[in-house]
Each structure stands twice: as C-alpha cells, then as structure tokens.
Specification:
Length: 260
C-alpha cells in the first residue's frame, strides 16, 4: 500500500466526509442529517452538470455501466446509479467503501457495487461506457496518476465517455509551492500546515499534485478520444483544475482518423 493510500484509509476511518469535501461543516463532529443531505445534493449537482455537457456532445448517448474512480463515501456514485443501469464505485480505502455502501438507498442496492483497487487496477471492471472522477487525481502522485488515467481510458468501451478532473495550476508563490512539496515528504512540515489551517496536528497529509494538460490530452488521444472538451474549475487557494470530457471512437473511426 502506498503512503497516499495509507493516508486515505486514515481519512476514511476518521473523517470521511471532510476528506471528500474539505469544508469545516463536513467534519464528523459537525455532521448532521441536514448537512449530510447537502453533501449528497452537491454530488447530484456535479453529476447533472457533467452529463449535461456530455449530452451536448452526443444527444443519443446513454450511460449503461458507470465507474466512479475515487468514490469516497458515494457522493457521486449514488447519483450516477440514478442515471445509469449500474454504477460501480472504486476506491483504495476500505473504510470509505464501507461508508459508501451504508449510504446507498434501499431502492438502489441492486444498481450499485463497490470495488477496492490498488495501483495495478487488478480488479478494474472490463465493460463500462462511462468513467467519472472528480477532485481525486489531484491527491495522487503524477506518475501514478497518469498511468491510472491511461488504464481507465484504455478499458473504456468504444462509444463511451470519460469525464476526468485534474488540477493543472497552482499559485506562482515560491513559499506556497515549497511548503506543499515538503509537506508530502516531511511529517513535521505537515504538522505545521495542519496547525496553520486549523486541522488536528496528526491529520494525514492530503497531497495536491499538479498535472500537465498537454500530457493529459495526449493520454486521451492515445486511447481513441480525439476530441475533448476542457471545462475549467477553480477550487480554493488559487488552485485551478480542469474537467476533461471526451468520447471514445469506435475502431472503424480510429482507423479512418489514422488514414488506414
């Protein structure tokens, strides 16, 4: 298990809702029925917004089997189940997956399943026509993240859609960048960061990794997704993200594109 996987298992065991949406109101100590409903309503909104963008690209498209990579407690998996024939939540944290399963409404139990993954994606399903991930890859080291994105897209069904979110820009502040990088490697720097942002001193490091957009688009194209839509997304402390959405071409179309 990698260090980031261990950190996410700790978050899943101790403060899972805050780990997904880092707002103070979603800490375990503050969470109540109303806030939990608000938490899941935000997932419904995010899925609706993304599928609206997909519909503009292909009005006839319908989600059959959907994967939610980095599903956490099911914030996005559950609304995906309402919009598909079956939704599968994928995560590295057993505690997150246990909480997610408990959150599934009775009427959706047959339409949702959860799978624990590792670096090699050994348990990755082989048939799915939609893959979604939001505010997840930013917490995965880049080298590992690029490989995972490639594997997810490689196994996407022809004619299927991918919508993957990455952080691609951070503030041009030397101290900010230095502290962020050191907090990944030196535990007492992470303690100081926790103290500054008023988290418990021993809270696990929550990595923020910056990806290169050109490399991401190349991975999409290498997997038969030639045309992509990039939707920008600002998400706190000057970080900028992008949701990359695209449709995987059928083999016949790919051969025409390559001139064969």
């Amino acid at each position: 298990m990698s260090s980031t996987d261990k950190a996410w298992e700790k978050w899943g065991a101790n403060d899972p809702y805050f780990a997904v949406l880092t707002l103070d109101k979603f800490h375990n100590k503050n969470l109540n029925k109303k806030l939990k409903a608000e938490f899941f309503a935000s997932g419904q909104y995010d899925i609706g917004l993304t599928l609206k963008a997909v519909a503009k690209m292909d009005k006839s498209y319908a989600v059959n089997t959907a994967l939610d990579f980095g599903c956490g407690v099911g914030r996005l998996t559950i609304p995906l189940a309402r919009r598909s024939k079956h939704a599968i939540g994928l995560d590295v944290s057993e505690s997150m997956l246990k909480e997610a399963q408990a959150n599934v409404p009775p009427e959706l139990l047959k339409k949702v399943s959860f799978i624990k993954l590792n670096d090699n994606l050994v348990n990755l399903p082989k048939n799915y026509n939609f893959i979604f991930s939001y505010i997840v890859f930013q917490h995965i080291p880049k080298k590992r993240g690029y490989a995972i994105a490639n594997e997810l897209l490689k196994n996407l069904d022809e004619g299927g859609f991918a919508a993957l979110h990455f952080t691609i820009h951070e503030p041009d502040r030397i101290v900010f960048k230095l502290v962020r990088r050191l907090s990944h490697k030196i535990f007492f720097v992470n303690w100081l960061v926790n103290l500054y942002i008023r988290r418990p001193l021993t809270a696990p490091n929550m990595q923020m990794n910056i990806y290169k957009l050109d490399q991401l688009v190349k991975i999409f194209r290498n997997n038969g997704i030639q045309d992509v839509v990039c939707k920008s997304d600002a998400h706190g402390r000057g970080m900028m993200g992008v949701m990359i959405i695209g449709k995987k071409q059928a083999q016949e179309s790919k051969e025409r594109f390559s001139g064969r």
